[in-house]
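So, who can interpret the following?
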Amino acid sequence: MLIWVFRAIFAIVLLSVLVANLSSDSIAGAEDKTNFWAVLYSAGGMAVFVFLLDFFTPKKKLSALAGVFFCLLVGMLLSMALGHAVTMITESYSIDLIDSSTKAIKWMMSICICYLTISIVMRTKDDVRFVIPYVEFAKQSKGARPLILDTSAIIDGRVADLCESKLFDAPVVVPRFVLNELQLIADSADKLKRARGRRGLDILNEMQSHSVIDVEIDDSVIPEVEEVKGVDQKLMMFAKSCDGRVATTDYNLTKVAQVREVDVVNINDLANSLKTVALPGENMEVKIIKPGEEADQGIGYLPDGTMVVVEGARNKIGRDLVISITSSLQTSAGKMIFGKFEKFAVRREGNTKQTSKRAL
C-alpha cells in the first residue's frame, strides 16, 4: 500500500512540475513549439521508462529507512551528473532550446531518477551494500536477541524448562500469528489436535506466570510480515525484522530458516547434543525392559530415551544391570548404545547393600 501512495505522489509532483513549466510564458508563449514538445516528450518518455522499470523489477524487501535517504542523495548526485549530459546533447546536435526548456528537462529527469532510486530501495528491503569497497551495513541490535517461539516449540513444552534453567538469557517472544495458530489448533474438531493445542496454551500460560521467564506476546503489525502468507513464512520475516532467533522442533522449518539465513534453535538437536556420551569400555547401569530382536539380546532405555541393546540379557528382563559399552550408533531415529552384560547392579535399601546374584 505504501508503494502505491508513493507512486501517486510521484505522478502528482511530476504532472505539477510539467504543467507549471509548459504553461510558462517562455515556453507556451514562444512561436517556435520546439521547446514545448521537447519538454513534453522528455517528461513523458522518462515517466514511462521509470514506471515500466519499476513494475518489472522483482519485488524484494526493505531493510532500513536510512537506505531511502541514502538513495535519494544518490539520485540527486546522478541528476547533477546527467544534467551536464543533457546540456552536451543539446549543444552537440544543435537543438534550439531556450534555458527554460533545458531546466524543465533537467527537473523532470531529477524527479524520475530520485523516484527510481527510492523505489529500488523500498523494494529491496535487505542490507545495503557497496560493491567497492564492498562495505555491508548490518542491523545492530542492542541487548540479548529475542527467542521467537514456534507453535511446535510451545506444544513440545521443553522450551519452558530450558528457559526456567536460564540457559537462554533472552526475552521470549510469541508473535500474534503464532498465538492465533495455537488457538485454531485448540479449537480443532480433531481430538488429538485439540489436545495438543490446549497443552500449548497451558504451557504458555505457565511460562507467563513464571517469574524467571520473560514472555512477551507481540501484537505489532509489521507490513513486510503481513505481506507474506503462511505462519512459517511470517515467522521468518518476523525474525528478520526484530533480529531474533526462532525456537522450533520442526525439522523442515529448521532447514528453511537455514536457507533464509535466519538463526534457529532446534529443541530436538539441542536435546540430542545433551545426551549421554557413550565411550567403548565404559560401564553404565540400565534396566532391561524387553527382549531384543536377536537371540540373547535385551533392550533397555536411558532416562533421556536412548536405546541400549545388551548382549546376554534376554533372560534378565526387569533387572538392573551393569553393562560394558562395546559401541554406539547414531541413526535417524536417535542414538543406540550396544553393550554386554557384566553383573547385576548394586541396590541400596536403607543403610545396607544387597548385590544380586547372577541368573542361572
About this structure: Confidence is low (pLDDT under 50) at residues 60-64, 125-141, 349-360.
